[in-house]
């Protein structure tokens, strides 16, 4: 029996496609929009689409589409399509992606803890300068906003280093060694404890602009740096960049690490580029690995075709 083609709108090169998707799902042909628009007849056969920022209205034109796969863990790029068909959406949840995010979060927390940006600047002028005192991890609390797959894994990555940890989510959570807060009622207490804030929130109407001056003003100032650090790898729509710039200028933030931005790529004239204590990365904290993504899609397609429930389904009413 001919298997339905899998539609990809991924701008990966042919080699990555071949070695990833064709290996994971050898029986399914592929239609990659990067190779040009397939014919109407070909599109009519498509049951599964793997997408990243699909053109609005496009998925609604596929008459036999049954499952939408997000190339990433975040699904805001799919849900913002007003003509999105009412079909199951599977997001990318995977050890490879999670591991990459944990690496990025741990790296950024340590960059600030160990004054790495300052040491880089001393090195550039051949200056042997030691910064005193060097606080230990246990002198700071890292607060993780968005305590889901990535947030909890990041807490587990930071835990062995000795940081105090707290997490904030929408619904109640518990994890050994982590003080958990939830909901709007728990937010202020969470912020008051937090010296280094890590946001791994999805972008929804509730998280739009949440990382603003008001929130920053509620973070702890009792930590060893006298001002908090903000780290965001969730979504840029959750941060108010004008407020972050102002807080950096006024010393209300000790430093920031930002991987996501209100507009991407971050415009060349953004003031964020110019702060020594702002670490900017180009939305690469946890990129989706082609082989891992293909394996994940293959697992879910196999489950679906065997009549089993799809995993990692998006709850549209929550928006993530
Ligand atoms: P999850 O859905 O597993 O976790 C999301 C967490 O955010 C949950 O704990 C959820 O609470 C919490 N949350 C959502 N809305 C609110 C709210 N209004 N108030 C309080 N808490 C809230 O997602 P992942 O951890 O897998 O991914 C998180 C995000 O990371 C993605 O949506 C994406 O935007 C971003 N991302 C960025 C990448 C990058 O490279 N920069 C790579 C991958 C992902 P609850 O558990 O109670 O529902
Ligand atoms: C994701 C991302 O959502 O890379 O996976 O941003």
Could you explain how this protein is built, in words?
The structure is a single chain. The chain is elongated. The strands form 2 sheets. A 7-stranded parallel β-sheet has the order 8-7-6-9-10-11-12. A 5-stranded parallel β-sheet has the order 2-1-3-4-5, with no helix packed on it. It folds into 2 domains: 6-92 and 288-305, NAD(P)-binding Rossmann-like Domain (Rossmann fold, 3-Layer(aba) Sandwich), CATH 3.40.50.720; 95-280, Rossmann fold. Helix 1 packs parallel to helix 10. The protein is 31% helix and 15% strand. The longest helix is centred in the first third of the chain and has 19 residues, at 95-113. With 320 residues, the protein is of the alpha/beta class. It is built from 10 helices and 12 strands. Bound molecules: NADPH dihydro-nicotinamide-adenine-dinucleotide phosphate and oxalic acid. Residues 72-74, 93, 101, 146-151, 168-171, 200-204, 206-207, 233-235, 259-260, 283, 285-286, 320 line the site of NADPH dihydro-nicotinamide-adenine-dinucleotide phosphate.
Record the SSE blueprint.
Elements: E1 6-8, H1 14-24, E2 30-32, H2 40-44, E3 48-51, E4 67-70, H3 76-79, E5 89-90, H4 95-113, H5 116-124, E6 141-145, H6 149-158, E7 164-169, E8 178-182, H7 183-193, E9 196-199, H8 213-217, E10 229-232, H9 241-249, E11 255-258, E12 278-280, H10 290-305
Parallel strand pairs: 1-2, 1-3, 3-4, 4-5, 6-7, 6-9, 7-8, 9-10, 10-11, 11-12
Helix pairs in contact: 1-10, 4-6
The structure holds NADPH dihydro-nicotinamide-adenine-dinucleotide phosphate and oxalic acid (OXD).
């Amino acid at each position: 029996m001919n298997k339905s083609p899998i539609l990809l709108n991924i701008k990966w090169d042919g080699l990555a496609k071949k070695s990833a998707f064709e290996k994971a799902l050898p029986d399914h042909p592929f239609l990659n929009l990067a190779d040009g628009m397939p014919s109407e007849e070909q599109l009519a056969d498509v049951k599964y689409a793997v997408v990243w920022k699909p053109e609005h209205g496009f998925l609604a034109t596929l008459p036999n589409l049954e499952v939408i796969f997000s190339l990433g863990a975040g699904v805001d790029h799919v849900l913002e399509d007003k003509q999105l068909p009412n079909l199951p959406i599977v997001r990318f949840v995977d050890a490879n992606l999670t591991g990459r995010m944990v690496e990025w979060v741990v790296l950024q927390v340590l960059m600030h803890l160990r004054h790495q940006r300052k040491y880089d600047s001393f090195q550039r002028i051949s200056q042997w300068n030691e910064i005193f005192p060097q606080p230990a991890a246990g002198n700071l609390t890292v607060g993780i906003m968005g305590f889901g797959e990535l947030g909890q894994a990041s807490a587990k990555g930071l835990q062995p280093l000795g940081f105090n940890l707290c997490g904030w989510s929408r619904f109640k959570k518990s994890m050994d060694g982590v003080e958990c807060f939830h909901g709007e009622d728990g937010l202020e207490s969470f912020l008051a404890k937090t010296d280094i804030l890590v946001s791994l929130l999805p972008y929804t109407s509730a998280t739009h602009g949440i990382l603003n001056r008001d929130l920053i003003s509620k973070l702890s100032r009792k930590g060893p740096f006298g001002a908090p650090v903000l780290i965001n790898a969730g979504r840029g729509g959750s941060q108010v960049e004008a407020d972050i710039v102002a807080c950096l200028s006024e010393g209300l933030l000790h430093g920031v690490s930002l991987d996501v931005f209100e507009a991407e790529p971050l415009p060349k004239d953004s003031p964020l580029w110019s702060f020594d204590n702002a670490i900017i990365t180009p939305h690469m904290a946890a990129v989706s690995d082609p082989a891992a993504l293909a394996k994940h899609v293959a697992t879910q397609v196999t489950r679906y075709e065997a009549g089993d429930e799809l995993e990692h389904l998006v709850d549209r009413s929550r928006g993530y």
